[in-house]
Structure formats: structure tokens, C-alpha cells
């Protein structure tokens, strides 16, 4: 169907039986949505705003609506059943054409479609995500045919205008008041017919072959980060522009570190003597450097310590996140006779005040047992 025959009721998103109040409400809702002030610089919204205004101006007038309901758009065409000049409807084709483009008419031949976008999944290490990385990949992708330069025609030959559509890419047929327009079945919308297809690509204008690409991975990327390589996707048919290639990154699981955004987490076991007395230990950083960590005396398992600025870099920004260290106090399992003797001596000196958590727990248990026996 051509641009000038888009149904006014469909445009306003109402039924043909809609009353004046419903029409007005629908128009206000759509006018607010597509008003140029709310969509600055958007030509599609501006054109749609004009189109719904034209539709509403027709349907809010009882006489115009009656003529439209009976004859459709023909009521407002020169010499149509409605009589008289088109008036406000003279430019409706241009308005609708700017909104709906080639799908609803337009005369120009169909543009060759752009090549498809492609996806490539890449696995990297946490270290790669930290430092960034330049690497190369090789993918099999359709590219423009060199012998015919993407035209699809055998070198030295060309394409001729399609006789079926006269080079427009579309054919039309009259059905009552409507002019139905379809893609030309002979040239498939190109407006041209290749008489002698290129033997290298079979007339497609593109062939599949390996392509080597350099990928620049910036520091701070995470799983799900997408890198776009413009124009490195599948070549379009008959010399049309290529699509894009999207690299989706997946960071491998690390043996030592876990990651939450720019924060890096790790679990560090310490001896129970270090936990009791405190001290200083060295731990690895995600950047490979050694970090000194002060352990406060009396620290408990599960306690988290934080190293500011020792986490992952901010992607395309400045600074780094934090490194969070969860302490795990390890109970010794292999003791010498002398070590056991020392621990027994310690045990004999214990009063219960050394471990307030344990003392408080057993006091609560004792109170619970006393309540039961009473």
C-alpha cells in the first residue's frame, strides 16, 4: 500500500467506531509522545507528529470523517469522490513517506541491505582484564568480492535496468481506490538485473574467507563487556556497506581472586598464633605486586580487611577499586610434642575471659539448662 493510503484510524491507534472524546484523547497522547520539543533533532518524531495532526484534523470534522469513512484517501484527492483540492492533505504522502520510508511506497529503488552484524566470544584471564591486552583473532567472514568489486557482475560486464519495474525496484497494481505496491519479483528490489553473474562469487558480490583482526582490550573490562569493530562484520550484498563485529568478553575464573565490579576479593588463611598476637603478612595483589597486610591482635575468622585502591581499574576512567581480604584462622593439625606441651600450659592458665564469645555462649547454655531443670 502506498504512503498516502495509511489508515487514519490505525495512525491514531483507535477503532473506526471511536467517538470524539476517544479521538481527542488518543491524539493528545500521541502528540505529547512525538512532539518535536520532546524529541529534539529527531526527524522521524517530527514527521509522525505532523502525520497524526493531519489524521486528527480530518477525523474531528464530521463532514471530512464521513467522506473519509466512505471513500478513504480518495475523498481528498483532486477529482476524487469528495471533490475539490486536497487542501491540508496535499502533502500527506510526503509526511508518511518520511515516517515509513520505502515500506509504504516512495518510487526510489530499494537500497541494498547492509551486511549482518557478527558476534565473537573471547575468553581472557583476570590479569588480561587488569592490564589490558592487544591480541589478534582470525574469523571466517563474507567479504567483498575482489574480481567484481562487490557488484556481482562478471568483470567487464554490468547490470541493466530491470524491464519488469523500469528500474524502480517495485511494481504497482490498482485495487479499487488503493494502489498496492510490492517488491519487484524479477530484480528483488534492486532495480537492476545482472546478465552475467561473477563466477568468483556467483553474483552475490561477496565471498567467505578468513579475516585477521587486531583486538585492543582496554584495562578494567569485565565479563559481558562488548567491543564493537565498525565495518568488520559481514559484507553487504552487491557492494552494500558491511555490518559490525561485536567482541563479547568472558573473564576466566581465577584461582585466588573473585571479582565484583572493580572490587577484588580473596580469602587468606593465617595461623592461630598470628590471629591471637597480631602481625604482618604479605599477600599477592591482582596486579602481581606483593602487598603488606597488618593483622590486628585477636582477629576472628570471617573478618574482612580492605586495601584501598588495590582492586581493578575503572574501565575508561581513573583510579582503581579495593581489594577485600577475608581472614580465615587455621587450626593447626600437626603439632610436635613440645608445641602440645606449650598449648596445655596455656590451657591451664585460661580463665575464659580470653575468648568472650565462647564464655558468653556457654553461659547462655547454662541458663537454658537451669530453666529446663527448674
TrEMBL record:
CXXCXGXG motif repeats lie at residues 145-152, 162-169, 184-191, 198-205. Its cofactor is Zn(2+). Gene3D superfamilies: DnaJ domain, Heat shock protein DnaJ, cysteine-rich domain, Urease metallochaperone UreE, N-terminal domain. Zn(2+) 1 binds at residues 145, 148, 198, 201. The keyword Zinc applies. Transmembrane segments: none annotated. CDD domains: DnaJ (cd06257), DnaJ_C (cd10747), DnaJ_zf (cd10719). Residues 132-210 form the CR-type domain. Zn(2+) 2 binds at residues 162, 165, 184, 187. HAMAP family: DnaJ. Belongs to the DnaJ family. Homodimer. Participates actively in the response to hyperosmotic and heat shock by preventing the aggregation of stress-denatured proteins and by disaggregating proteins, also in an autonomous, DnaK-independent fashion. Unfolded proteins bind initially to DnaJ; upon interaction with the DnaJ-bound protein, DnaK hydrolyzes its bound ATP, resulting in the formation of a stable complex. GrpE releases ADP from DnaK; ATP binding to DnaK triggers the release of the substrate protein, thus completing the reaction cycle. This is Chaperone protein DnaJ.
Amino acid at each position: 500500500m502506498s504512503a498516502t493510503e495509511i489508515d487514519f484510524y490505525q495512525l491514531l491507534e483507535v477503532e473506526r467506531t471511536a467517538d470524539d472524546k476517544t479521538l481527542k484523547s488518543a491524539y493528545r497522547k500521541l502528540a505529547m509522545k512525538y512532539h518535536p520539543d520532546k524529541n529534539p533533532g529527531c526527524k522521524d518524531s517530527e514527521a509522525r507528529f505532523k502525520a497524526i495532526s493531519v489524521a486528527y484534523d480530518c477525523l474531528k470534522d464530521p463532514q471530512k470523517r464521513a467522506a473519509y469513512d466512505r471513500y478513504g484517501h480518495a475523498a481528498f484527492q483532486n477529482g476524487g469522490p469528495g471533490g475539490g483540492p486536497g487542501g491540508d492533505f496535499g502533502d500527506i504522502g510526503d509526511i508518511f513517506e518520511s515516517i515509513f520510508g520505502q515500506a509504504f511506497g516512495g518510487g526510489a529503488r530499494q537500497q541494498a541491505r547492509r551486511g549482518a552484524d557478527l558476534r565473537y566470544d573471547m575468553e581472557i584471564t583476570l590479569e588480561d582484564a587488569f592490564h589490558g591486552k592487544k591480541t589478534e583473532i582470525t574469523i571466517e567472514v563474507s567479504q567483498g568480492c575482489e574480481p567484481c568489486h562487490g557488484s556481482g557482475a562478471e568483470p567487464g560486464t554490468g547490470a541493466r535496468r530491470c524491464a519488469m519495474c523500469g528500474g524502480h525496484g517495485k511494481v504497482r497494481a490498482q485495487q479499487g481506490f488503493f494502489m498496492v505496491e510490492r517488491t519487484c519479483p524479477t530484480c528483488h528490489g534492486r532495480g537492476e538485473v545482472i546478465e552475467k553473474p561473477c563466477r568468483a562469487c556467483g553474483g552475490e558480490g561477496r565471498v567467505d574467507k578468513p579475516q585477521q583482526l587486531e583486538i585492543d582490550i582496554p584495562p578494567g573490562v569485565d565479563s559481558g563487556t562488548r567491543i564493537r569493530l565498525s565495518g568488520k562484520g559481514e559484507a553487504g550484498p552487491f557492494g552494500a556497506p558491511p555490518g559490525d563485529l561485536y567482541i563479547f568478553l568472558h573473564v576466566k575464573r581465577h584461582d585466588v581472586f573473585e571479582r565484583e565490579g572493580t572490587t577484588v576479593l580473596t580469602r587468606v588463611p593465617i595461623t592461630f598464633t598470628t590471629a591471637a598476637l597480631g602481625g604482618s603478612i604479605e599477600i599477592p595483589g591482582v596486579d602481581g605486586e606483593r602487598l603488606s597486610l597488618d593483622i590486628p591482635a585477636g582477629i576472628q575468622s570471617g573478618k574482612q580487611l580492605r586495601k584501598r585502591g588495590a582492586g581493578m581499574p575503572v574501565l575508561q576512567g581513573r583510579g582503581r577499586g579495593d581489594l577485600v581480604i577475608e581472614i580465615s584462622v587455621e587450626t593447626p593439625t600437626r603439632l610436635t610434642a613440645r608445641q602440645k606441651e606449650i598449648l596445655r600450659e596455656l590451657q591451664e592458665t585460661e580463665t575464659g575471659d580470653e575468648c568472650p564469645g565462647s564464655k558468653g555462649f556457654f553461659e547462655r547454655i547454662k541458663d537454658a539448662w537451669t530453666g529446663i531443670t527448674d
